[in-house]
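WP5 quarterly update. Target: Acetyl-CoA C-acyltransferase. Source organism: Rhodovastum atsumiense. Length: 391 aa.
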Amino acid sequence: MPEAYIVAALRTAGGRRGGRLAGWHPADMAGEVLSALVAHAGVDPAAIDDVIMGCVSQAGEQASHIGRNAVLASTLPDSVPAVSIDRQCGSSQQALHFAAQAVMSGVQDLVIAAGVESMTRVPMGSPCSLYAKAGLGVGPFSPRIQHRYGVETFSQFSGAEMVAVKYGLDREQLDVYALESHRRAAAATGAGAFLREILPLPVQGPDGSTTLHRHDEGIRPDATAEAIAAVKPLQEGGRITAANASQVCDGAAGLLVASETALRRHNLTPLARIHTLVVTGGDPVIMLEEPIPATRRALQRAGLSIADIDLYEVNEAFAPIPLAWLQATGADPARLNVNGGAIALGHPLGASGAKLMATLVHALRARGGRYGLQTMCEGGGLANVTIIEAL
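C-alpha cells (predicted):
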C-alpha cells in the first residue's frame, strides 16, 4: 500500500475567549495556516489536490462552508477544492485520516488536513441555539434516540463526571493533573518547544499597535494547587470544574500530507509517516471513554504495544479522560502530553486534532522518538487514534 507522509505541521498559538485572536475572522485565521503550510513546504499552492477542514460550530462566521472560505482567504488559487467536516472534537484529526486515506489510495498526492474554531466569535453550541431560536424542529436528538438511551440530551460534562466515578478519580487527582498541565505547558513555552509548530499571527492592541501572537494565551505559569482547588464544580457535588477542564480557545491548525510521488516531484522532506488510522464508536451517554478501546484496537492493528510508543497526545477535554486512559492502558505518565495539554493550552474544538498532531510531530522529532500516538474523546461516543512514525 502507498505511504502517506506529513511534510508540514503548523498551528496558531491559542487565544483565550475574547482574547488576542478575537479580532480574527475564522476563515482568515484558517487561511493563514493554509498559506503558511505551502510556504513552509515550498510547494506551488496550485499543486494542492484538496483541503479538508474540520470545524464543529458551523454557524455564523463558520457557516457556508468554512473550508472553502478558508481557501478563498488564503494564497491558494481558487482552483483548489475544499470540504468542511464535523466529527465533533475530533474533526481535524479525522481530516488527517481522510487526507491520509486519499493519499494511500493513490487518488491524490498533496492534501491539507486542517481545522479552525473561533469560540469567541462562534460560541460553543451556536448551531443548536440558532435552530432553537428559529423554531426549526425539536433539536438534534429525536424522540427515538431519547427513548433508546433514556436521556433527553447527551452531555459531555455528565460524561466526564461518569468517567471520573467509574475510574475512581477524585477531585484532588483531577486538580493535581490540571496543575501539572499548566506547569508542563509553561516549561515547554519557556524552553522554546513550540517554536517550530506555532505560526505567529499579527494582532492589534488597544493602543492600535500591532504585535505578533506567538504564545498560548491560556497558560497560567503562576497556577497553584490552592487556586485550582478553590474553583467550584460545574455540577452540584461534582468533581469537574473549569480549572480541571479544557479552556475555551480560538485557533487554527493544519498538516500537509504527501504521497511518495509528491515527495520526489516537489523535493519534500517528510517529518513523519502515517502508520495507523483507527476510529471507533461506543456508548454516547458516558461518551468520553471511547479513546480507551480505540487505543487498544489501534495498537493491535499496528502490531505494537503501548510500551513501543514514545509519546502520547491524549486530549485534555477534561482531566478524567487522560487519567482514565493512563489507568486502562498502563501507559507511562511521563510520556503523556509532555508539553501540557488543553487544560493549559486550550481546546479550539474543530482545530484541536490538527493542533495536537502538530505538537506530537515536533515533540517526537525533538526528543528523538520513533512512534507517537494521538487520541481524543469526541461527542457522541466517538474516538480517533492516529499512530505516526517520526522520520
